[in-house]
Amino acid sequence: MDRGEQIGDVLRHVGIDARVAAVQPLTGGVSSDIFRVELDDRTVCVKFAIDQLRVASEWRAPVGRSAAEHAWLAFVASAFPGFVPSLLGVDDANHAIVMEFLPPADHPTWKARLLAGDIDVAFAGEVGARLAAIHSRSAIEPRMAERFDNADNFASLRLDPYLRFTAARHPDLASQLEALAAALATARIALVHGDISPKNILCGPKGPVFIDAECATFGDPAFDIAFCLNHLVIKSIVFPSVWLEASAEALWTAYRAGIDWEPAAAVQARVARILPALMLARVDGKSPLEYLTPESGDAVRRIARAVLRGEARVPGGLFIREALA
Q1: Hey, how many other C-beta atoms are within 10 angstroms of the C-beta on 50?
Q2: Residue 324 has what pLDDT?
Q3: In DSSP terms, which residues pair with 24 in a beta bridge?
Q4: What's the rounded Cα separation, in Å, for the pair 290 and 69?
């Protein structure tokens, strides 16, 4: 079945009985086929999980992760309306999710704004505050560990391609990176999105909107905030800017203020371990950042290795100075 036929099948499955006027593929993701679908009465987004991710290395992941993504979005939509797009349904047989389409004109990605030099420090703080709210609520919700028992998905999408693959390319750091992967694999603290990056955060009229929760699992919330900080730190190295550094600090400060499920210092200490590992992974893992040149990639690699070896600190005016002091 081609995607056009499949989209019709998915829409019928979720109870949408409307004529499809147009289908437009959307770009930007490596793990999904995403379409803007024009119906007679509205525009929706249909997203299919794919088996082989669009990267240079072989990287396969369970397509059933669409159910995990839908569950994460549904939980957040219920607890915090407006933090995610409105959901219209999930089709487990086709590994697809249907949700409202948010036009880029009034919902650009945070990544697009950052790369264009449009840096809003207050927005970064709101991202941190909303992420902490999600983690806080999920940490006390009953049966979340059972509902989001997705450790295998998280391993195939994050731990293996990021930490373990990178460990094989840096033998002198392998034991450290493997130990970090093992700790993240067994943590059971709060609901983790797993891909909190600027490309998965829309700048909506009423604040940040989170999308793309394919990696969702019940694990260590420190991974989420470190994953997002990582993008800001790397961008501040590649595109030096005091405002990028200020955004990273605002992100962390607002997030830290919302930590109430454990001592904030404990989360901070784990972020200090995870962040440099992710920096290295975005150069030498299976999903290198596309805007890195050989020169800028080497700069990020040198800094990440030095931090992991205890020879340096992450540059800039970041909270990490305290954590590594």
Answers
A1: 15
A2: 38
A3: 36
A4: 24
The class level of CATH for 1-101 reads: alpha beta
pLDDT value at residue 315: 58
Q: The tokens of 104 are what?
A: 């880029």
Residue 224 host element (H or E): helix 221-238
H or E element in which residue 181 lies:
helix 174-186
**Do the domains 102-325 and 1-101 match in fold?**
no
- The partner residues of 89 in beta bridges, in order of sequence, read 98
Among 165, 170, 198, which Cα is nearest to 287's?
Answer: 165
Contact call for residues 65 and 151 (beta carbons, < 8 A): no
- The residue-averaged pLDDT of 274-300 equals 95
- What fold is seen in the domain 102-325? Aminoglycoside 3'-phosphotransferase; Chain: A, domain 2 (3.90.1200)
Task: Give the C-alpha distances (Å, rounded to integers) separating 192 from 34, 101, 182, 230.
Answer: 23, 24, 16, 16
For 102-160, write each residue's pLDDT tens digit. 999 999 999 999 989 999 999 999 999 999 999 999 999 999 999 999 999 999 999 99
Domain ranges across the chain: 1-101, 102-325
Residues 233, 127: Cα–Cα separation, whole Å: 15
pLDDT confidence bin for 65, thresholds 50/70/90 = confident
Say how far apart CA 253 and CA 128 lie, in whole Å: 8
HSE value, Cβ hemisphere, 13 Å, CA-based, for 209: 20
For the record, the structure tokens of 316 come out as 């800039």
Mean pLDDT in residue range 2-17: 84
